[in-house]
Design goal:
297 residues; alpha/beta; Arc Repressor Mutant, subunit A; D-Maltodextrin-Binding Protein, domain 2; 3 domains; five-stranded mixed sheet; 47% helix; elongated
């Protein structure tokens, strides 16, 4: 009979987090039969049934859940002690990172570069998305750390502020030259669950425009192209349109909104993986630049 090893407990934890043997196998860079064999080994060793199927998901039994609750803190503490003893020299694994476009363009490259330099054994998988999907992915365990627009309030998340970005009302020079204050111009924004969408509607109402229907696109860079090349207007992050404003491809057509978009790094509140915690600690030192704040001062 084989002894229970750390990789057995890690396997149980990832099945519990992701819900299937196949997902755990992908996360641990192994095969589904290997995952099944690990579960079978530990069940035979303990004389317990650890998982039961509920629909498509594998769910811990009551005794399996108790085992994970008691062993996970010990496993992560041991991993962290070993990594700290070697100054994280042996840190390895894949960390799945999610980010909004604004955070990705503003501060993520420097963070990634530092991790590549200091944690060469860590593989990063980065995907861009909007705030609502990022939160869902993090809570579901398919992302390990995310950078999103906040403030975020969820008992399942641990967050750290990383700065704010100012916004500007912009359009192409042809719209500004029309001299109609942008009235009648199509308005574009991110989808309705984004802070950008809410600010756009709020400022339109403050200007007496009511709540018009907005054209939406879930890609900020495409929004910038739509506005700069056509007869449209949008509220956009100043940091992402600074070059177009400097070149004259875009111009400001209204006073800048007073609202800022705040950004946060987030992990699961119960996260104990030492590598993810290490990357989160590094993320807390990030600061998104807000050059527009100086312009408002």
């Amino acid at each position: 009979m084989k002894r229970i090893a750390l990789f057995h407990l890690e396997t149980l934890a990832w099945i519990d987090r992701l819900g299937t043997f196949a997902a755990a196998a992908q996360r641990l860079n192994t095969t589904q039969p290997a995952i099944s064999a690990r579960v079978r080994e530990i069940e035979e060793q303990l004389g317990l049934v650890l998982f039961q199927r509920e629909g498509r998901r594998m769910v811990l039994t009551a005794r399996g859940r108790r085992l994970i609750q008691q062993c996970e803190p010990l496993r992560h503490d041991l991993e962290r002690a070993l990594l700290e003893a070697s100054d994280f020299a042996g840190a390895s694994g894949t960390v799945r990172i999610g980010s909004g476009e604004i955070a990705a363009a503003s501060c993520l490259p420097a963070w990634v570069q530092a991790i590549e330099r200091d944690r060469p054994g860590v593989t990063m998988e980065i995907e861009l998305d909007l705030t609502a999907p990022l939160m869902q992915q993090l809570l579901a365990g398919t992302r390990d750390i995310v950078f999103l627009a906040g403030p975020v309030a969820s008992p399942g998340l641990r967050t750290a502020p990383i700065g704010s970005v100012g916004l500007v009302w912009v359009a192409s020079p042809s719209v500004a030259q029309a001299g109609n204050d942008g009235r009648g111009t199509p308005i574009w924004s991110l989808p309705d669950h984004s802070p950008l969408h809410r600010v756009t509607l709020a400022t339109l109402e403050a200007m007496g425009r009511g709540r018009p229907a907005l054209h939406t696109c879930n890609n900020v860079r495409l929004l910038i192209d739509i506005v700069s090349r056509g007869r449209a207007a949008a509220v956009l992050p100043e940091t992402m349109v600074r070059a177009q404003l400097d070149s004259g491809d875009l111009v400001e057509i209204h006073p800048r909104p007073r609202q800022l978009v705040h950004f946060e790094a987030a992990i699961r509140a119960r996260e104990r993986d030492p590598i993810i915690l290490d990357l989160f600690e590094r993320a807390q030192s990030l600061r998104i630049e807000d050059a527009s704040a100086a312009n408002r001062a």
